[in-house]
Amino acid sequence: MTAELARGQNHPLSQVRLEIRVSAGKPVVAVATLGDETGKVHGVEWVVHPGVPTLPGLEVSRQAAADHRLAVDLDAMPAAVHRVNVLLALPVGVGGPVNFGSLASPFVAVTGLDGAEIATYTITGLEAESAVVALELYRRQGAWKVRAVGQGYAGGLAELLTDQGLSQAYQLAAGINDAVAQGLARSVPAPPPRTADADRSRQAAASALGPDQSGSPYGAQGAQGAQSTQGAAGPYGASQNPQGPSGPGYPQGSTSGSPADPAAAQPTQAPSTGGPIDYSHPRRRNTAPPPPPTAPPAQPGQPARPVAGDATGWSMDERLYNQAWGMFEDLARAAAAYRSAVDFADTRMEKELDQVLSDPRSRIGGQGDAAREAAQAKYVQLVDQAREALDRDLAQLTAEAEVVEPALPAAFARWDNPVWHAYRVPMEMPMALRLGDLHLPESEPLRVPMLVRLPLERGLWIDSGRTSSSDGSFADSHELRRLAMESAVAHTARLLAVHPVGEFTVHVIDPAGSGARELTPLVQHGVLAGPPAVGAAGVAAVLGRLTERVDLVHMAVRGGAADSLPPGFDTSQQLLVVNDFPHGFDDRAVTQLRYLADEGPAVGVHLMMVADREDADGYGPLLDPLWRGLLRLTPVPDDHLADPWVGHAWTYEPALVPPGSQVLQQVLAQLAMARPKNT
């Protein structure tokens, strides 16, 4: 069971190989210091930071990010190390927040390599502080423990490091801040030249999206995120460190290579002979999936023409899913290479200008002017070369998107895709679901599908609060609540549409009836389990039934008696849509919602909240775990999905029904006709 620590509390660590996950909402710098028995840091070589991201037994992120993953191996720590302090600091000189008081409370979790949380800590009470000691791992009588610290410093990272006994604290803090401000810590090498064959063999990560929210745009599946690996994120979850293992908010994958590593995607050969037991099974797949279709040969000097489904997989849906993930990874790499090249050009020009200005003889006159013009010309040349390479990659990805989008099945397709006009209720569950689109500032016209694996591993939170829409548009609070509810209805209808009849049940709680207008399509077609619950009694009844269901299934599974559930027990996946939270919810209802968010997904009960987080501030930190456990989606375009792989902030666009379209009503009518009359 996870230990939720308060300030000053400690908890034993039963594992030595750990991950420390940080979620701060805005970019922060993660640093760790090693201390002796008294906690003193003996020198800069005892500090791991973005400029020096690894030390024996410890690794931190190379960049400032909203979500981090720190890798820790306590067995690899030098014998002289008795304490490991995890520090968080706001980057200086990058135009971001200047103190933690303007941010949501940072959240820190100590997990095993499997992602299971051992201890968590929400750092509350910070105001003017710009650096904080979040956690301390310490060795006591041969055993390691974790302590929640939460000690903030208004003087920033330099003051914090000074307090830990580091004599070079100010120089080191300045070096860290300079590296972050100049983008050096997040620079990544340009990807290797790609061939047509290499493009076609790329693999997408398995389901998780890290966001993280952390999250990795695809942060939904724990990216998720949520659940990201070294090669992909999730922009969603959650979730994450370019060097760390996968986790919530992004697709899960191996820590030994990128998600696109074909070797990691090959199924393991199971032995079928040579022993007293034959483990072969007629339906077990012990071979690699069939190769993807090959693209028609390109004309000399022309790029290869893309083909839909041009990725490995056992089915066309799996190939298209992997291809969409491959497009996401390619776009992330291309943008990262471009940004890195621009950073390099900036740094080089500044260095050359500094050299000119350092010599008094060249500050004035023709020699100085010529040197400055040469530096500027070199800068323009490097940026133009980087942009040319980016435009080439974007053109190829755009051509690929143009052939992939029309070929997507309903579960992966936008609502304006013609596939919906031929919709029929499916007989099998899909492998993934589209929640929207993703894009980057450098690739404004190009949209990549945001796909999350099914069944959902995290609930969804449709944010009805104020948001910084990426298109500069403004909507008042009433309009945002309406848009959020319309978005929730569209997501709910899609979930119903892509499941076979009877495999997905939807309940709705609308305490004040404020969402009645937006819920009309679902109610009129009779696709809900019952009328939306209103009033305190309705809220209590629905939450009580679903909580009891989760308890019952958990007990049956843990007791090894899953077949002994009551006759007539509904085994379908359950979705609870909650509108206008927290209005109309008492403390008991809030506790039940937290329980459903934490324990429900494991037994097929999922949560979709339509809420403004600021409205729930009255509950204090009680609800922080609830929001962290959900994948935040917005009803308007917003660049809130963090990609922990290369540090991108992806703009998310919701999957909404086009204005004036009747496709939603047509799909719901098909569902209503296919449902048994007694349901």
Count of alpha/pi helices: 12
Structural class label: alpha+beta
What proportion strand?
A: 15-25%
Say how many strands there are: 21
The shape, in one word, is globular
Computed CA radius of gyration, to the nearest angstrom: 26 Å
Mean pLDDT: 79
First-last Cα distance: 38 Å
Q: Largest sheet, described in full?
A: 12 strands, mixed
Outline the low-pLDDT stretches: 184-286
Helix content: 25-40%
Give your account of this protein's structure:
There is one protein chain. The protein is an alpha+beta fold and 679 residues long. Helices cover 29% and strands 20% of the residues. It has 12 helices and 21 strands. The strands form 3 sheets. Strands 1, 2, 3, 4, 5, 6, 7, 8, 9, 10, 11 and 12 form a 12-stranded mixed sheet that branches. A 5-stranded parallel sheet has the order 16-17-18-15-19, with helices on both faces. A 4-stranded antiparallel sheet has the order 14-13-21-20.
Layout of secondary structure:
Blueprint: E1 3-5, E2 10-12, E3 17-35, E4 47-48, E5 54-55, E6 58-59, E7 65-73, E8 83-89, E9 107-111, E10 117-122, E11 131-140, E12 143-153, H1 156-163, H2 169-181, H3 196-200, H4 262-265, H5 316-358, H6 366-404, E13 432-439, E14 448-453, E15 459-463, H7 477-497, E16 504-509, H8 516-524, H9 535-558, E17 573-581, H10 587-599, E18 605-611, H11 624-628, E19 630-633, E20 638-642, E21 649-654, H12 663-674
Helix pairs in contact: 1-2, 5-6, 7-8, 7-12, 9-10
